[in-house]
Fold:
Amino acid sequence: MTPAHLALPGFPGADPVAGLIGGLLIGLGAAIMLLGLGRIAGVSGIAARALGLSTQGMGRLLALAFLAGLPLGAWLAFDLAGAGQGVFPESGVLLGAGLLVGFGTRLGSGCTSGHGVCGMSRLSARSIVATLTFIAAGVATVAVMNMMGNAA
Amino acid sequence: MRNILVSLVSGTLFGAGLAVSGMTNPLRVRGFLDLFGTWDPTLVFVMGGAVLVMAVIWQVQRRMVAPFFADAFALPTAKDLDWRLILGAALFGIGWGVAGLCPGPGFAALALAPAQAIIFLAGLFGGMVLFRLTMDN
Structure:
């Protein structure tokens, strides 16, 4: 929990300090991948590589090690910093959304990490366009779902 | 062996960042996408912090001949804004909005909510296989 004096005026639910600290950690992780191994820390591409669904990218063991680090880091954060567990949608929704995310990130060559963090910071036009597109699609989707929920 | 450790450390910091910032909580991500409702701007700070670090790192990268632990940089070279990029990003964005999860938090959530994370990842892998079978060329 963020102390009250660190909250964002007008947005009582927001947690800007935790967000910024987490964002810096994410940037640090991506920095080690780039300067250490010369690769983009793009999770969708690395996941496809780990599964053997992509011929490009890092070695499979490197891909698997990066993916294993994601829950390991989350577990450490949960244990040490008390990160929350979250509220998840039901199984059918998770599965269908996963399909869209898997197909879409392969077709669009990246997700929030590859395009949103690594590409945008490199001022890649493709990544800026992709990021604006998936945020706009996400905003529209949530708006439509809220409307349908309210009508039902 | 050393490079595997470097990759593991990179993923661990990345996963810790996702959990600390609340991005492993679908409720918070959907709060960011709920621009016309009760908007939660936390994700702006997450992406801002990560982009800030990486903007500096790209300037360092430009001055390096090779990465520390590999022979050469292997970076994306595509420049074209084609229909695949736009349609792919749009489909991803719809799935992101529906579940409040993208690939990174999906994997990180294995440590926090394994039952739900496995179902999302099963869908994710299914979508990737579907792409491989239909569109990959």
